């Protein structure tokens, strides 16, 4: 079942869009079912669950952190995390930088933007953030590889498309202003089970899909 779901999702994605399997709340046996198909990229949204699963799963899994991250918990994932999608403050970025340097590594991150109409979704607001980018780029322990965002939870597909398109335009503007010489600045992480095909139409390069894989 899981294998069929995965194959179906992969078949629906263009070759240059990466699938990240969101494994939060799922038991290890189900993660292993995904792993056995050859898939290696998994995402979690809580530090505790992420570290537990990291310890239990094979070591060639690439772990993504996609949930709100508190600065005091960065140290637990800094040694192994593959990509942090949810950088939403300068304070958090400086803590990731500090923990990366402690671990002798550079941690890849995405800047999360608030693109939905709901108040609850976190992320940088889309105006005003530009002023801190030069300071973020100076942090040598992190590498900013792109942007992440979540659309509103609504049946209005046109609205969802507009919100994703907005994120794509934020990406383009950052690329032009600050990241022309950064070839690794190329990730637009948007799209979940309910809206990933719309996200792909709007220019997503990385979709984060959970329910559709496991249900
Ligand atoms: C849970 C979650 C997803 C996946 O959601 P599904 O609807 O299960 O595909 C994607 N992104 C984030 C940030 C999440 O928290």
Q: Briefly, what is this?
A:
The chain is α/β, with parallel strands linked by helices and about 220 residues long. The protein contains nine helices and eight strands.
The fraction of residues assigned to DSSP E strands is: 15-25%
Q: Provide the helix percentage.
A: 25-40%
For the record, give the distance between the C-alpha atoms at the N and C termini, rounded to a whole number: 8 Å
The biggest beta sheet reads: 8 strands, parallel
| Alpha-beta content class | alpha/beta
Would you write up a description of this structure?
With 215 residues, the chain is an alpha/beta fold. The chain is 39% helix and 19% strand. It has an eight-stranded parallel β-sheet. Helix 7 links the parallel strand 6 and strand 7 (187-189). It is globular and about 50 Å long. The model has no long low-confidence stretch (mean pLDDT 96). Residues 22, 24, 45, 66-67, 150, 192-194, 208-212 line the site of pyridoxal-5'-phosphate. The site of pyridoxal-5'-phosphate has 14 residues, from strand 8 and helix 9.
């Amino acid at each position: 079942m899981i294998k069929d779901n995965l194959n179906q999702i992969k078949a629906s994605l263009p070759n240059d869009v990466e699938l990240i399997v969101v494994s939060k709340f799922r038991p290890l046996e189900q993660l292993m079912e995904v792993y056995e198909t050859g898939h290696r990229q998994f995402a979690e949204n809580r530090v505790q669950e992420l570290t537990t699963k990291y310890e239990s799963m094979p070591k060639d899994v690439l772990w993504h952190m996609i949930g709100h991250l508190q600065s005091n918990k960065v140290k637990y994932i800094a040694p192994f995390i593959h990509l942090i999608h949810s950088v939403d403050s300068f304070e958090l970025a400086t803590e990731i930088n500090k923990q990366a340097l402690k671990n002798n590594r550079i941690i890849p991150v995405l800047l999360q933007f608030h693109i939905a109409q709901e108040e609850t979704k976190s992320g940088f607001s889309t105006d005003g953030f530009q002023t801190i980018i030069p300071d973020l780029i100076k942090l040598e322990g992190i590498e900013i590889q792109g942007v992440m965002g979540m659309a509103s939870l609504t049946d209005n597909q046109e609205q969802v498309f507009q919100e994703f398109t907005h994120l794509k335009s934020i990406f383009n503007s950052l690329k032009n202003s600050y990241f022309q010489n950064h070839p690794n600045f190329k990730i637009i992480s948007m799209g979940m089970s309910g809206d990933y095909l719309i996200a792909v139409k709007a220019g997503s390069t990385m979709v984060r899909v959970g329910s559709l894989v496991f249900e």
